[in-house]
Amino acid sequence: MLQVPHGGPELPQRRNLVTEIPGPASRALFERRLGVVARGVSTTLPVFITAAGGGVLLDADGNSLIDFGAGIAVVSVGNAAPDVVSRVSAQVAQFTHTCFMVTPYEGYVEVCEQLARLTPGEHEKRSALFNSGAEAVENAVKIARHYTGRQAVVAFDHAYHGRTNLTMALTAKNMPYKQGFGPFAGEIYRVPMAYPLRWPDGPDACRAEALSVVKSLIHTQVGESNVAAVIIEPIQGEGGFIVPPDGFLRGLADFCADHGIVFIADEIQSGFCRTGDWFASSHEGVVPDLVTTAKGIAGGLPLAAVTGRAEIMDAVHPGGLGGTYGGNPVACAAALGAIETMESMDLSARARRIGDIMLPRLRKLAETYPVIADVRGRGAMVAVELTRPGTLEPDPASTAAVAGACHRAGLVVLTCGTFGNVLRFLPPLVIGEELLEEGLDILEDAFASL
Ligand SMILES: Cc1ncc(COP(=O)(O)O)c(C=O)c1O
Question: Is the pLDDT of residue 2 over 70?
Answer without folding.
Answer: no
